[in-house]
Amino acid sequence: MSKFRIPEDFLWGGAISANQAEGAYRENGRGISNIDLIPHGISRMDVKLGKVPNPVLDKNAYYPSHEAIDFYHHYKEDLALMGELGLKVFRTSISWSRLFPRGDEEQPNLEGIAFYRNVFKECRKYGMEPLVTLCHFDIPEGLIRTYGSWRNRKVIDCFIRYAKVCFREFSGLVKYWLTFNEINIVLHSPFSGAGIAFEEGENRNQVIYQAAHHMLVASALAVKAAHEQDPEIKIGCMLAGGSFYPYSCNPKDVWESVKKEQENLFFIDVQVRGHYPSYAGRMFEEKKVSLKIEDGDLEALRYTVDFISFSYYASRCVSADMENKTANDGNVVRSVKNPWLQTSQWGWAIDPLGLRTTMNQLYDRYQKPLFIVENGLGSKDEIAEDGTIQDDYRIDYLKQHIGAMKEAMEDGVELMGYIVWSCIDLVSASTGEMSKRYGFVYVDRDDEGKGSLQRRKKKSFYWYQKVIKDNGEYL
Ligand code: BG6
């Protein structure tokens, strides 16, 4: 039997994000954000809002983010539950438009700051370290309308102003920060990921990679600002992770997987190494991208992150001949169906060993501490007649993934912690549904926004509580 033990200071956690949980979308001075513009029933991955998204909301439509699970008013109750669960770290994000309602103001909204201070103090009351993402798929609508979001470099200044306010105002309360959630998702879901809409006939790649350049400069300058505020701060990047398997050993499939891996890790290569990778020149040429890089940008990129965080839900599978293969429809990242893997109710491949593979590959490539900040199963849950929720499928999924994670740690991978997505049910990022549930705590709310919002612990709550207590020995 293995003698391997998870280190005592390992950060077991649970996560939510502001736009999927808080609601209170116009309260106490908050401005509208990109996600607030997306009504129920539209795939978040495929928003076609035209040239300028329409900020006039449709009175007859239902917008899931407007109330979400109302964490804004339930945060004390919810954090008490997370304290009971025994979390060492609670991951959330700050809603940028709660601090800067339009995005380009000089001064922040003090009521927004007060809210997050209360949240972080409450976390500390239960001994939970907050891990905070500055930008989790949200951007103030004012920045989209006025500047076209990240396609305009003026947004870098707005972001840095916002980031500096966060580091200053939450100093002493928050030690762990992330700049952008799943920064590579801008390639696949540009509007919901980064507020980017396209004009007719535009070269999408040109817009996306120029925006990505601005985001990478902004991320690096935020790292600099964080360390200037407090050298003890640990700030990381965040990747939508999952290795790209070749569909077969046909060298063409293998080459396709190498290319997709580079495309995916492009952002992390910059954030960790501090410069554009060697393959970028040819990649841009093939995608007909010509980056506008201004004086000082390349120097700014040298401020590299302290650790690499990532989400892991599934591995991906690619082929040189994608068109003639069965697509894996559920995946946000285009992928073909892997015949070796089962899928979730939403068609996401289930591949625990893929987590070990991903961790080994990331660590081999970067030799920096890793942090799993999202892993979990989106599933429908039923309340039994006795009021319990027997989510054994979720326990089984997590058990297998934690097992694979431990194997990777034993392989020598340095891992700071493991965070489950999500610790409480919330609105799905890709579909806007409530019925795609991930939590240890059930929230009574349906896809149309009906329900009492009452919270109820699932079977997995008690299971994860034991896992944390035994530091991963009990699975
Ligand atoms: C990640 C996001 O992509 O996956 C989360 O960071 C998201 O915001 C999670 O909720 C699961 O995806 P979904 O679409 O099932 O909510």
UniProtKB/TrEMBL annotation:
Pfam families, from UniProt? Answer: Glyco_hydro_1
Catalytic positions are E374 (nucleophile)
Q: Which UniProt keywords apply?
A: Glycosidase, Hydrolase
Q: Which InterPro entries match?
A: GH, GH_1_N_CS, Glyco_hydro_1, Glyco_hydro_1_AS
Reply yes or no: does the keyword Thylakoid apply. Answer: no
What family does the database annotate?
Belongs to the glycosyl hydrolase 1 family.
The protein's matches in NCBIfam families, at most eight in alphabetical order, are given as:
PRK09593.1, PRK09852.1
Q: What is this protein called?
A: 6-phospho-beta-glucosidase AscB
